[in-house]
Amino acid sequence: MRAGRSSAAGSAAEKSLRVLEAVAAPGGPHRLTDVAAAAAVPKSSTFRILASLVDQGFVRQEFESRYEVGPRLRALSALVDGGEPAGIGRVLGELQRATGQTVHLALHSGDTITYIRKLEGDQPFRTASRVGMRMPLHTTAIGKGVLAHLPAGEVAGLVAATGLPRRTPNTLTSPQALYAQLEAVRSRGHALDDEENEPTIRCIGAAVLGPSGRPVGGVSVTTVTFLVSREEIESYAPAVRAAAEALAPLL
Q: Where is the IclR-ED domain (predicted)?
């Protein structure tokens, strides 16, 4: 970690950028104390800045209050220079060719996922999703895949915090119904969004797990209901699960 400048130096924006730079330094996830020292920002101010950056998805808070680069910053990096392991593009391309449908890769932060890659399908339509878009956990296939692999207490806390807002008539707004579906997701290894996030859109997804078994994000295949039946999209499950496994060491 580099030596910082005077803690009094810089505007609020400059301090936030120094904190972000410290989080992105090699050797992360970094402790709050180390981030504050490297950024030369008081610990209390660093904590407030980090809380805002976590809320916005630019920083991700890991176990024991350690911090690392979040999905929105990774998405921004991908937009600027395509800075990602070459294998990610290969895995996503193989999934798109195997299904002919739109493929999404998203990273998890807090109570949302953020799309960092999108490959359009071979169909004569385009979905409204875009790189950098943040989506709820309980309404999306990737989000439910993530929730299924988080500790039960953490899931309950997220549910209490978000309140499970309804986005379509099919959205699961009951905690009990969501928990039952998450149990099924854990047993079969993939999740389905059956017009729960957006009318006429059906997705199948699987969580991408980190070395500790904690989900870092997920991958999904997106279809439209008037062209792809539920039975057909379920047939993509093995390819989606295989893609998630292949992506695990790359994220």
A: 72-251
